[in-house]
């Protein structure tokens, strides 16, 4: 089969690799019809290469059709149209029953001290082959899937793999009071969708970014924006818009590669050129994130407010202003999205009315063979790239 493989910093390639096979009774194989490039994939493309091996298959946002099942996959059947969540979980352990499949005790990557295994996301999360490929082996398939109806295009459902539940969780964790307000920092795929969800629920939303196309997408949905290039201080600008108080909540949808953190950026760049045996321990034990977005969130949120962190962070020694957090009585909520916890809440919105605009959410739809160009475009924020769909079996048309 053809698959997108990691080859080094800012280098991916489409290779011919062996087709996946059933290895365990709870495995299934799907033929992938659509797979996406995620903002989190760019962390592997740029920062976390020390945990990758050349030839690793990338990707964790697929959907397709079941073509083979093991003997212990429950009601899952050949021919089912399915979306595959980015995390692999059993569905029956204590963590899964608590609604925390990201912490699944069956698939936790204990040797790395991390949570549930993820598709295509390095040794940190299980070294599981990813989904930017023509076929995908799905472990724990009795739970690690969502069956969706035939008929609507893939774009209606594919975001259930990550974007929709991740954005949904960020809004739930923000815990905005009725009639309240939320600032969303970063208008990539997750921040954009979080804005849409909160706006749909009647919350006052202020989206913050510095990319013109991303700001315009949010404005086109009637959402207020702040352009980082036009203000000296985001927190001051937002306080001016909220009676001097700040928003009730802030969603940090940026994460570890925020702008405006030159020292941390230099350290991240250093790890990218060190040998893996030196870089991996440095990241795992003494990593630093670029904290520009998080510090802005702390400054922006009102006293007694909530910060919902959905952008990925990886640092182990990040300095936080604990006095300010304590003094302002700020609540922090964060973590990988617990996909299946939220799916039943989201599905009623995936109707023909399409209130969240999922059918037109992608900015680019390309054949899998163009993945290297797509990664470079997405990383550089060129050509208005916000969300890229890859088609493993045919030409993209958008």
What would you say this structure looks like, in words?
It is a single chain. Mean pLDDT is 91; it is low at 258-271. Strands 3, 4, 5, 6, 7, 14 and 15 form a 7-stranded mixed β-sheet that branches. A 6-stranded parallel β-sheet has the order 10-9-8-11-12-13, with helices on both faces. By secondary structure, the chain is of the alpha/beta class. Helix content is 27%, strand content 21%.
Mean pLDDT: 91
Number of helical regions: 13
Major sheet: 7 strands, mixed
Radius of gyration, rounded?
20 Å
How would the global form be characterised?
globular
Task: Report the uncertain regions.
Answer: 258-271
Helix coverage percent: 25-40%
Distance between the termini: 24 Å
DSSP strand content: 15-25%
- In N-to-C order, the SSE pattern is EEEHEEHEEHHEHEHEHEHHHEHEHEHE
**Using DSSP, what is the number of strands?**
15
- Backbone structural class: alpha/beta
Task: Spell out the blueprint of helices and strands.
Blueprint: E1 2-8, E2 11-16, E3 28-37, H1 41-46, E4 62-69, E5 81-83, H2 94-97, E6 135-138, E7 146-147, H3 154-157, H4 163-174, E8 181-185, H5 189-200, E9 204-209, H6 212-219, E10 224-227, H7 234-241, E11 247-252, H8 262-273, H9 276-286, H10 292-300, E12 301-309, H11 322-327, E13 331-334, H12 339-346, E14 364-367, H13 371-379, E15 388-391
Parallel strand pairs: 8-9, 8-11, 9-10, 11-12, 12-13, 14-15
Antiparallel strand pairs: 1-2, 3-4, 3-6, 3-15, 4-5, 5-7
Helix pairs in contact: 4-5, 4-12, 7-10, 8-9
């Amino acid at each position: 089969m053809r698959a997108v493989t990691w080859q080094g910093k800012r280098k991916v390639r489409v290779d011919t690799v062996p087709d996946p096979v059933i290895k365990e009774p709870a495995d299934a194989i799907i033929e992938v019809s659509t797979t996406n490039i995620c903002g989190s994939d760019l962390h592997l493309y740029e920062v976390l290469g020390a945990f990758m091996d050349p030839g690793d298959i990338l990707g964790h946002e697929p959907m397709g059709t079941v073509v083979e099942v093991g003997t212990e996959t429950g009601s899952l059947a050949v021919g089912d149209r399915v979306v595959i969540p980015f995390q692999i979980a059993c569905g029956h352990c204590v963590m899964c029953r608590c609604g925390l499949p990201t912490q699944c005790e069956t698939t936790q990557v204990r040797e790395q001290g991390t949570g549930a295994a993820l598709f295509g996301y390095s040794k940190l999360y299980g070294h599981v082959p990813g989904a930017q490929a023509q076929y995908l082996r799905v472990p724990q398939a009795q739970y690690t899937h969502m069956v969706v109806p035939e008929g609507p295009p893939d774009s209606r459902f594919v975001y259930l793999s990550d974007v929709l539940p991740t954005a949904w969780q960020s809004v739930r964790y923000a815990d905005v009071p009725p009639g309240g307000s939320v600032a969303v920092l970063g208008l990539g795929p997750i921040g954009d969708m979080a804005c849409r969800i909160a706006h749909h629920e009647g919350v006052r939303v202020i989206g913050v970014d510095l990319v013109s196309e991303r700001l315009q997408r949010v404005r086109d949905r009637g959402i207020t924006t702040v352009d980082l290039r036009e203000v000296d201080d985001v927190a001051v600008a937002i306080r001016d818009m909220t009676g001097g108080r700040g928003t009730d909540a802030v969603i940090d949808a940026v994460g570890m590669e925020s702008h405006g953190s030159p020292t941390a950026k230099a350290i991240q760049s250093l790890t990218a050129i060190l040998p893996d045996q030196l870089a991996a321990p440095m990241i795992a034990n003494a990593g630093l994130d670029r904290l520009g977005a998080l510090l802005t969130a702390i400054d922006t949120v009102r006293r007694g407010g909530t910060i919902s962190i959905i952008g990925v962070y990886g640092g182990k020694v990040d300095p936080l202003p604990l006095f300010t957090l304590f003094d302002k009585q700020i609540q922090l909520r964060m973590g990988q999205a617990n996909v299946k916890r939220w799916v039943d809440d989201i599905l009623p919105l995936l109707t023909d009315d399409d209130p969240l605009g999922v059918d037109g959410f992608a900015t680019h739809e390309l054949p899998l063979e163009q993945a290297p160009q797509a990664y470079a475009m997405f990383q550089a924020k060129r050509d208005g790239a916000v969300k890229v769909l890859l088609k493993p079996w045919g030409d993209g048309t958008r």
